[in-house]
């Protein structure tokens, strides 16, 4: 069942007197419960696509159907209510959390806004979510600032799954983490997908990360999708120069023979 | 190989911090080698780089010895070049690329303005920037992240230092650019007969070009040795864990076979 | 809270807070420390300071107690300074928030008005306003505020524009938070710290402006202020300099206290923001 269908998305920016096409006719589909990896070098437009799909940035052209509805036509209260179904995890750079927030407030916000559980059960739901992402329930009282990068990213995931979304967009969600943490984070994401049937749109410049979790891969370059297909196929036999460059760029552990 | 620098019992504590950022580091840097310092966040690898280059903030207390072969500590810019992680922050936004690359050369080699400009042009060509003539008069914000890092490397090498320290120079760049920058550094260092100390968190990246690796963890040196030996037969459990947690395209995916 | 503790740990914050605490106490306890009307004639004229225990700081040309003047003048300085700063901040915050959030033509229009008020030297503006409207405490407060609101307005707007672009604001939108809630819970608390740090400087400037206006005879004539005391002493500057020096020292101590506090506040609040 097709969860998300984007057609001919375009986004132009004026830069230095010229028009730059950040998105130049991008189309993709995503089925329920699957992971589509979106790979590309910087400037390929993958982050712009993530922001257009999550309605953070309006496109200049194109259409998006999400769960059978015209996603771009929604606005105001209608949009806010439907947002529960599409969530996002940002790269954990310093700006991803309100520096004054507590962990409990961060996770509690979507629960409250979308009345996921009755008010009396909210604290318990927050504790359950914290536990699911591998953090002690006592962390709810802590300030976000006191957490390490890995812990913050777990809170970000908890926040994203709290309103029971059908799709989570992950924009370089593990890129800022230490390598040893990355694997555990990816395992958590895969487990959550299996349990809750969440689809992921995973944006990254690191094909190794994408190869771990993606069912299908799309390669972006200069605002266009230049290659798409099952993950193993695209990685095993990339047809596009951009795809080949991404494959070549993954560092391989050189052991002596 | 002779040792360019012998580090003995190096300990660094930042002002106001109870625990040392680095403790009891014993390591040799051999002339002409490519040494990779590998560690995760908080391992002290950046502190090590800055201690070598004498770039620690005022108030940081340093104990132990840094015995340089030259007899004296290396002069910044002249004997040591430093490439920082964030190319946007390490370049001055109000100076042209040419001015910044020439600065080190002019100051240390006593070049005139014209000679400095020529040297800058030469360096920009060596770091394989497209259209080096035009780039001389461009400003940092007009370049991409990868291009800026090439400029930073050019500036670091302009005065022909014997030692180049690169502190996570590719961590802020995407994979494709990372591969190019690492290859560039490898070539430049080899052509110039320089010593390279490369700080990174990526053991696979380091294995691609380093002669020796040193693994740092929580401010201590866990293990050091020739890259091949460390990777094939790690002596410390932590090193083995780091190697095991590496993922590349050959590693089996986490999602099930039938795609679900 | 955390901020106050950090504030007290910095030397500037501790000294500044100490000085201002003394000042505030003096101002509050004025009627206890020096009962009676400070403007009444209490003794002989021009008694030198430190000679008569009844008048520790001496008396002025009319025989008014200098110490009483200093103590009661503290009330005026603090009250006017704080009130003017609060008014300036209130106006500045409103304008800055409106401009930062609305954008477009509203932003442009508000910024041109802000430009106009910033171009005119604030003291001259206050001077002109008081001369035209008349000298009384509320008018003085308003006059000072008119000259001081433009800086906080600009700073607030800059902060709003910067904070709006942060990922946590985007995250709030993605969760489905109502824009009003985003403005109040996500943006505003992160906009305020630098503006609050500026407020201490505004208080210092307000106190000095009030003193200057009083000095020129444009303050409220019915209350004693340090500025008017300095003006009084002008006539006998050679023979009885202490009449101007004491209120002058009081002013210096107050302004230094405020500046030190603002330094400490800046440091403490910087800790509380994005680390």
Search tags:
heterotrimer; A: about 260 residues; alpha/beta; 6-stranded mixed β-sheet; 4-stranded antiparallel β-sheet; about 25% strand; globular; C: about 280 residues; mainly alpha; about 0% strand; elongated
What does this protein structure show overall?
The complex is a heterotrimer of chains A (257), B (260) and C (275). With 257 residues, chain A is α/β, with parallel strands linked by helices. Chain A has helices spanning 46-53, 76-82, 103-113, 122-132, 149-161, 179-196, 207-213, 231-236, 241-249, and strands at residues 2-15, 18-31, 35-39, 61-66, 69-70, 86-89, 167-171, 199-204, 216-221, 224-230. Chain A is built from 9 helices and 10 strands. Chain B is an alpha/beta fold. Chain B contains 10 helices and 9 strands. In chain B, helix 3 crosses helix 4 (113-126) and helix 3 packs parallel to helix 6 (145-157). The longest helix of chain B has 18 residues, at 175-192. With 275 residues, chain C is mainly alpha-helical. Chain C is built from 12 helices and no strands. Chain C starts with a helix and ends with a helix. In chain C, helix 2 (11-28) packs across helix 12 (242-272) and helix 6 runs antiparallel to helix 7. The model of chain C has no long low-confidence stretch (mean pLDDT 87).
